[in-house]
Design brief:
six-stranded parallel β-sheet, binds magnesium ion
Length: about 350
């Protein structure tokens, strides 16, 4: 490399639209995560920023209001919700003004009505489709109505069944509670049918965002490999995993093919920093002075480098390249160190 060689690219180079997950990326609980708001505001100076949420209980306007309170500048149309993705999917199956049996809350009802559908809560109204999303007030009686409406199998002329998302759990202040996937699963067990899912990690929610923002090169930022990063990979866009939420360094090292992020970030400040190149030499992977190799069943650290994030990156690429599942590898404890911010 010459003295005046081009500076290394940041994860934002060439990107025109940045999409961000919310929980574990922008906020955790009631408060914003460190550096998230400043970093995203800085992105918004030069690029379109959109927000994607699987949460079906809040409207886009209420999410935008919350984000604005945290210090971001967000309008309702900058927020893509799983109910909006569900409506996009429905339009291809049952165009408005059909009747939808809704299991869920305001976020879902508002989007259904905005899209021109009639809304019912009863299977007796002969609905044309069932749409199911989480809301704290969803009761057994709602699941029963869904089951009654879905009694005919789809291949025998049964009506479509869309789930906004399939998250098994929902984090609450007092612990982990059943999420929409768990409630959908209850109906599934009763009727023996499978719902079509609109939210992450399925593609409709990403397609809705890419179409709405007219994106040419998109970067998606998430905190979960099995929903955010897998979804981005499925729709063919670059992704950044922020180590500020659910998944930790050990999960990154173990990420299966199809759930591997393009970038791994300590926090969102690194969106604006040059991303170090991943160099492969003599069977070892080096990232900014951190070098790791896999020999047989052993993962070896040859150089720790200066920043732990680079060691995680080097370790991840070395393990991914090896094609060996992590559970049969001997991994040094050092690689699992987790000095990053955890909500
Ligand atoms: Mg998240």
């Amino acid at each position: 490399m010459g003295l005046f060689s081009k500076a290394r690219a940041t994860p934002l180079d060439g990107v025109d639209v940045v999409l961000a997950d919310l929980d574990g990326v922008v906020y955790a609980g009631p408060g914003a995560l460190p550096h998230a708001v400043e970093s995203l505001n800085r992105v918004a100076e030069t690029r379109r920023v959109g927000y994607i949420t699987n949460n079906a209980s809040r409207t886009d306007a209420s999410v935008a209001g919350h984000l604005t309170e945290l210090g971001l500048s967000v309008a309702a149309e900058d927020v893509v919700t799983s109910p909006q993705a569900a409506m996009r999917l429905l339009a291809t199956m049952v165009p408005a003004p059909a009747t939808l049996l809704i299991v869920g809350g305001e976020g879902l009802v508002v989007e259904a009505e905005k899209a021109g559908y009639r809304v019912t809560r009863s299977a007796e109204d002969a609905p044309d489709a069932v749409v199911q999303g989480f809301a704290p007030e969803v009761a057994w009686t709602d699941l029963a109505e869904a089951a009654f409406a879905l009694k005919v199998p789809e291949d025998e002329g049964g009506i479509p069944w869309i789930a906004t998302n399939s998250d098994w759990t929902i984090p609450r202040e007092r612990g982990v509670a059943p999420g929409n996937g768990t409630l959908v699963s209850a109906v599934h067990t009763a009727v023996g049918r499978l719902a079509t899912v609109a939210g992450k990690p399925e593609v409709p929610i990403f397609e809705e965002a890419i179409a709405r923002f007219n994106a040419h090169k998109t970067l998606f930022i998430g905190d979960r490999l099995d929903t955010d990063i897998m979804g981005a990979a499925r729709v063919g866009i670059d992704s950044a995993l922020a180590l500020t939420g659910i998944d930790r360094p050990k999960h990154v090292l173990a990420a299966p093919e199809g759930s591997r992020p393009t970038y791994v970030l300590s926090d969102l400040r690194e969106l604006h920093e040059p991303y170090p190149t991943v160099e492969r030499r003599n069977g070892a992977v080096t990232v900014n002075g951190a070098t790791v190799r896999v020999v047989g069943g052993d993962v070896e650290i040859l150089a720790e480098g200066k920043r732990h994030i680079d060691l995680v990156r080097a370790g991840a690429h070395a393990i991914w390249d090896s094609g060996t599942p992590i559970f049969v590898l001997d991994v040094p404890e050092k690689l699992y160190d987790d000095p990053f911010h955890r909500p």
